[in-house]
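Still learning. Show one?

>
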Amino acid sequence: QVRLVESGGGLVQAGGSLRLSCTAIGSMFAFNFIDWYRQAPGKQREFVATITSSGITNYADVVKGRFTVSGANGDKTVYLQMTSLKPDDTARYYCVRDDKDRGPGTQVTVSS
């Protein structure tokens, strides 16, 4: 089991940017794939982006062109760069390693 911790969330105005980090604590960050999800109060979990160990990325249509996921297998951290943020992006964002290990998440709030 790998312990993951997300950071980088905060309050930002619409149109702004944030970079989220997903960091492995106390171990090497080996993965086959890392998914980013988000969940807003009263809503279901929503897939945001994924990156594989070979660097292949995929994005939800609602964030495509605005969000970029990066990181390499074996690095300590995977990043989610978010630009042109919208109020609808407000949610708690968390990373999941290989559908197994999940961090507690970091809150992103976008004001209009």
